[in-house]
Design goal:
about 500 residues, eight-stranded mixed β-sheet, about 10% strand, 8 strands, alpha/beta
Length: about 500
């Protein structure tokens, strides 16, 4: 993935002021025990969607405490960041793992993509400070997690903690802009990425970088898109963190746990081999060697791995993967470059440029809609999502805040060509029309978004951009229709 793509879905929170602040917060709190403990007021064994910060009432978190939680002993913790400030999502996904292995979960309901530093910094400081004060935390096992821009944020915070974080679980994105892993990275990384995620290539390249640096990591590919790891994968992620904690003496060694994990992963590798999945088998065997080295004898598996490196099918599979990554980059560039030219220079034929994008998008969509789950179908779906993310995020996070409304409308129009069924694009268009006091156009765009499946009534009613429409009859009719019309299944 290109540097530009990385910059598009980050929160932009890694300026010196934030890093210094985080170091101060974590460093000062790690010197002494909890300042207070209100954890006994919280129910255990269930997801709590909203717990208000004791220090600042405008902040809140989703929290999970294991059913056997006790304020008398320390627990490891995972502090998570969702790009849409939906703390309940990561907490729900990690809940089973937390219950099984004894972790506290805390996820911010305020941190989200696109917030300026002045707003994000106190949010981050509060969630970390609140967690470390409120609960008796095992300071050797403080972990962070995030999806997309939240993953970049989690990595950035871990870097700022300078050894205070033991590990990070990243879903669908890697390091933040202007930051790369180094050989002295003080924490471990477990990553997940869907095979149709627009950041798939980035995560594959990150895997290579971490391997070359000989850093403890595991990147798990699953069938899916740009999303949080499933509950099943979250269990695997925590199990991997447990193994790494044993390696570094952050927790007591458990030979039965090690043997059980080895057996399970060996069986998964054997299944890949039996089904002729060379790429998956190679990755599984490589993971066995890397994950369990130090904890047990891996010499036989190392021999197996060396043989696989010379296997013709494996070589071809690895070659195909690299070629697909390069092909994906070229195809995405073909969709994005004409749009950049429209904005950055005086194009003689703007409609021609848009037609160029439209024609290519139609071809790619046809390839992405075939029934068979082929490498090309996965590739073209990633390309469409990558280009859509570029146009939509540039419009909403750059053009609109800077009042470049005409440019935003052009980019959203291109986004609509890439994803005709997307319900959010008409809503963003409506927001521009509402801001510029074009009420009829705004209401028409809102209607289009609703027809395509948009159903978040609360978000519309709370959006300040639409306040000028609240007295319109068509607005009232639209809201009433949304309340009585079920959302079409499968529409995104």
């Amino acid at each position: 993935m290109s540097r530009n793509r990385k910059e598009r879905d980050t929160t932009g929170l890694l300026r010196k002021v934030l890093i210094i602040s985080l170091v101060f917060v974590f460093g000062s709190l790690s010197v002494f025990a909890r300042s207070y403990d209100y954890s006994d007021e919280l129910p255990t064994g269930q997801v709590i969607p909203q717990v208000v910060s004791l220090a600042e009432s405008k902040y809140s978190y989703a929290i999970y405490l294991p059913s056997y939680y006790s304020a008398e002993r320390s627990f490891p913790v995972i502090i998570a960041f969702d790009p849409g400030a939906r703390g309940i999502v990561p907490v729900s996904r990690f809940k089973d793992a937390a219950e099984k292995y004894g972790y506290i979960l805390v996820a911010s309901n305020n941190s989200r993509n696109g917030l300026p530093n002045a707003i994000s910094e106190p949010i981050i400081n509060d969630v970390i400070g609140e967690t470390l004060k409120r609960f008796l935390i095992d300071r050797n096992r403080v972990y962070l997690a995030g999806l997309s821009g939240g993953a970049r944020l989690a990595l950035g915070i871990a870097l700022a903690m300078k050894g205070g974080a033991a590990g990070v679980v990243i879903c669908g994105a890697g390091f933040p802009p202007n930051s790369e892993p180094t050989k002295d990275l003080p924490f471990v990384i477990y990553g997940t990425v869907g095979d149709e995620d627009f950041n798939y290539s980035e995560m594959r390249m990150l895997n290579e970088t971490l391997s070359k640096l000989n850093l403890a990591h595991h990147i798990q590919i699953f069938e899916g898109t740009h999303e949080w790891a499933s509950s099943e994968l979250c269990i695997k992620a925590v199990e991997w963190l447990e193994l790494q904690a044993m390696k570094t003496n952050r927790r007591k060694r458990d030979d039965a746990f090690v043997d059980s994990g080895w057996k399970r992963q060996s069986e998964e590798a054997a299944e890949f081999q039996a089904s002729g999945k060379a790429f998956e088998n190679f990755n599984a065997v490589n993971a066995l060697v890397q994950d369990f080295r130090v904890l047990r004898d891996v010499s036989e598996m190392e021999k197996n791995l060396a043989a696989l490196r010379e296997d013709k099918a494996v070589k071809q599979a690895l070659k195909n993967d690299k070629e697909d990554i390069a092909k994906e980059a070229r195809l995405a560039n073909q969709l994005i470059s004409p749009g950049m030219e429209l904005i950055q220079s005086n194009v003689d034929d703007p409609p021609g440029k848009i037609k160029e994008i439209r024609d290519l998008a139609v071809d790619i969509r046809k390839r992405s809609e075939i029934t068979e789950n082929t490498a090309d179908r996965r590739l073209t779906r990633r390309v469409l999502r990558s280009a859509l993310a570029y146009y939509r995020e540039t419009a909403t996070l750059n053009f609109i805040p800077n009042k470049k409304y005409d440019a935003a409308l052009v980019y959203l129009a291109i986004g609509a060509e890439l994803a005709p069924k997307n319900s959010m694009i008409p809503i963003e268009v409506a927001r521009i029309y509402a801001i510029t006091n074009q009420k009829k156009q705004a209401l028409r765009s809102l209607q289009s978004g609703v027809e395509k499946g948009y159903s978040d009534i609360k978000a519309l009613e709370n959006d300040k951009a639409f306040e000028g429409l609240h007295g319109e009859r068509d607005w009232t009719k639209l809201i009433e229709k949304m309340k009585t019309t079920p959302s079409p299944k499968g529409v995104k």
